[in-house]
Specification:
This protein is an alpha+beta fold and 129 residues long. It is 44% helix and 29% strand. It has a three-stranded antiparallel β-sheet, with helices on one face. The longest helix is centred in the N-terminal third of the chain and has 50 residues. It is rod-shaped and about 95 Å long.
Length: 129
């Protein structure tokens, strides 16, 4: 008559595989949460810069734009550099370069996380002032 069931060694191997799988799933969940937090931080910073550009295009001065925008924890600085450019057959347009320095992502996600990064965009609007 054969004994039915698993030996102690088979049970321990199966338990070890199950523990390793649960540990891997937990590590994946922690990493995914950190990536999401890092991406949200960077997205907020880029949105902040985009809103500053939109306000400038609407006719606000750089000082007014900075005063209107609420503080954003991920943005270290937002600097406007303005100039007037004369374009043939179009006239004079105002051009602003917005340089934003922001803190990148969560520290667990990459080697550059937590380091100040810079992004620069150029905005053009008709000369209205």
């Amino acid at each position: 008559m054969k004994n039915r069931g698993y030996t102690l060694v088979e049970t321990l191997v199966a338990a070890g595989i199950l523990v390793a799988a649960i540990g891997a799933a937990a590590a994946l969940a922690v990493t995914m949460t950190a990536f999401e937090e890092g991406n949200a931080t960077v997205s907020r910073a880029f949105n902040y810069q985009e809103q500053a550009a939109r306000l400038y295009r609407l006719g606000f001065s750089p000082d007014e734009v900075i005063a209107l925008l609420p503080p954003e924890s991920s943005v270290q600085s937002l600097v406007f550099t303005t100039d007037a450019v004369n374009i043939d057959h179009l006239g004079t347009v105002e051009m602003a370069t917005l340089e934003m320095v922001y803190v990148s992502g969560a520290e667990i996600t990459s080697a550059t996380a937590g380091v100040n990064q810079a992004n620069t965009i150029t905005v053009v609007r008709p000369s209205i002032r």
